[in-house]
Amino acid sequence: MERLKSGIDGIDDITGGFPIGRSMLVTGDAGSGKTIFALQFAKSSCKQGFKTVYITTEEDASDLYTQGESFNWDLKTFTDNNILSFTELAGIRAKVTEAEMSIDIGAMKGNFSKFINELPEDTQTVIIDNIGSYTAKLTPYEFRDRFDLLIYELKKRNITALVVLDSATSSEFNEIALFSVYGALKLMKRENPYTGRRERVMDIVKMRSTKTPTQFISYEINSNGIIMI
Ligand SMILES: Nc1ncnc2c1ncn2[C@@H]1O[C@H](COP(=O)(O)OP(=O)(O)O)[C@@H](O)[C@H]1O
Ligand SMILES: [Mg+2]
Hints:
Blueprint (H helix, E strand, L loop, with lengths): L2 E2 L4 H7 L2 E2 L3 E6 L5 H14 L4 E5 L4 H9 L5 H6 L3 E5 L1 H6 L2 H11 L3 H6 L7 E5 L10 H17 L3 E7 H6 L4 H4 L2 E9 L6 E10 L9 E6 L2 E4 L1
Parallel strand pairs: 3-7, 3-8, 4-5, 4-6, 6-7
Antiparallel strand pairs: 1-2, 8-9, 9-10, 10-11
The structure holds adenosine-5'-diphosphate and magnesium ion.
């Protein structure tokens, strides 16, 4: 199976990278580093020459550039060279009033795959950060249906995807998103029983056709982004 380097060295050393044409899920609490992970993956994908689309639902592109700059990542050069593009769904959401919201969400219902249909033909890599913004009022059955269809359509187009899902939404739907995807990672903070300090750990929950560790992997976020320790 061909792989695309995730851009996080520790993960690439262990797994060889993310399987091309398949979808990976990243879940985690607020501040756990999901967006940084997603940006680091986007950068890596561009560097490897893959046409990459980053769909952002919570921050606008300028905030993501700024986040990248804090790690000395020059994402602008990628967008200037048309290898990377941002689709902002954050602004649209911010504009709708609560009354309009239910209509808007209603229109979005069943339409995760709308994200995919509107992608340029030559898209090779897609990042959706955070799909949890578009699940309001779905029942767990509907969520599973829509999510499965999204993953199916991505695969049909041979797109390598990283789907971010906040842990609150993931647990609201009983973690069923974990079943549809080819691989899943969970970003967490936990207390180290020996030091009493809180540390960041990652669980590679699954990656099909790949040997994965059962232990948590410690990581930190420093001036280079996400680094395994
Ligand atoms: N330049 C940086 N250096 C070190 N840590 C950073 C830097 N930028 C952000 N962080 C850390 O990353 C956290 C935000 O990560 P983010 O990926 O936005 O989380 P999530 O998307 O899971 O909510 C911040 O709260 C901070 O702890
Ligand atoms: Mg985020």
